[in-house]
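Blackboard transcription, Thursday session:
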Amino acid sequence: MDESNLAAVWLTLKLACLVTVLLLIIGTPIAWWLARTRSWLKGPVGAVVALPLVLPPTVLGFYLLVVMGPNGVVGQMTQSLGLGLLPFTFPGLVIASVLYSMPFVVQPIQNAFEAMGERPMEVAASLRASPRDAFFTVALPLARPGFITAAILGFAHTVGEFGVVLMIGGNIPDKTRVVSVQIYDHVEAMEYAQAHWLAGGMVVFSFLVLLALYGRRGNSGWSKS
Amino acid sequence: MKARFNQLFALAALVLASSVAQAENVQVAVAANFTKPMEAIAAEFEKDTGHKVQLSFGSTGKLYAQVANGAPFDVFLSADDTTPMKMDKELLSLPGTRFTYAIGTLVLWSAKEGYVDAKGEVLKKGEFQHVAVANPKTAPYGTAAVQALTKLGLLAGIQPKFVQGENITQTYQFAATGNAELGFVALSQVYKDGKLNSGSAWVVPADYYEPIRQDAVILAKARNNVAAKALVDYLKGPKAAVVIKSYGYRL
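(Written on the board underneath:)
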């Protein structure tokens, strides 16, 4: 395993950790709202969150490239804020990954909140817990399995991301060259021995992740419903 | 009902069989930089001969890997001359079919009008964040860009600003969306009939990099494919030459 491979592994882990934390923070309120709301917006918002499940990564990558570019809405905003442009940067990758892995985090948490039902919150309220208090001391602990599943899936899915990164990353060492892109590079350059180290590592990693997931939940896996 | 269905089936089979007898299919793997001219040539070829052409575009490295692993291509149009040579050695191609179908031209291009000057001085000023380059390890136009920058003595300064496209099409896309101010792309991507389609460009002098000889071969699988042979002859002919030159390639 040479230095460039190690750099790619390190960068990938950094990206996946950051994205997972961000997604738990952003995804929890969205999941809570989706689980509780009776608004007609539930359908549309749920669909938007789930879009990355069915969209080809190239579609997401292409639109991010356009929208975050100098002529795009987001690009003009980041430029006027003095942040420059997001494509080809690590923050750009983080944003893309957050969007791309969103359903893998929101849906398990939403499922957990829904499975919990209204009852625990009502009981907590009758015991004079404030909604905020009840959320942190009742809802969150009850939904713990959902959060663990969400974190594992969000992390693993970010590690496994390829198409979006390829399209907006620009393959820059230490900034955007993650493991999946590095493997692709090695294969293209016919450096198969190098590719095997990383590709084999990914197989082992993915197996362990799924083992952790399925082992923990018996044979039920995770369901999309 | 059943009899009628059988009749229909027989008719369909007949139509299919007769069309197979006259025209054949040829599947062509084409290096990404040759996308536009090849589409034009294939359309004319189909009209003139009745053969059917299916085109697949990609980076030379990837197309090679696909061919080496049994991809069903009949003709391979590479972006370099080393890959077809390698194929000859590995018996992936038919011996004696290799020829240079075009010599590529490297260009420094920007989507912005007036951004690139006629002498490429913009490179020396260095007032840009990113320059898009095709992966020099795998893409010939990327290799040529690195050679040109080395010759200019600018490589060390500019390399940190590289954003790498997986192939020349993606490299162009980085520059075309403006995310990279500059890009080293193939002239064929930004030029037609003597003028730029858009933006501004500097045609890198040919002596700054080794000639990008783009070779083609007929692949071993197409030994008995009439259409493959016909297409290669067509590529060598005067009609194709007009198209190839119109995109800024040399012959």
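Lecturer's comment: Chain B touches chain A at residues 59, 61-62, 64-65, 129-130, 132, 135, 137-138, 162-166, 170, 173-174, 177-180 (CB under 8 Å).
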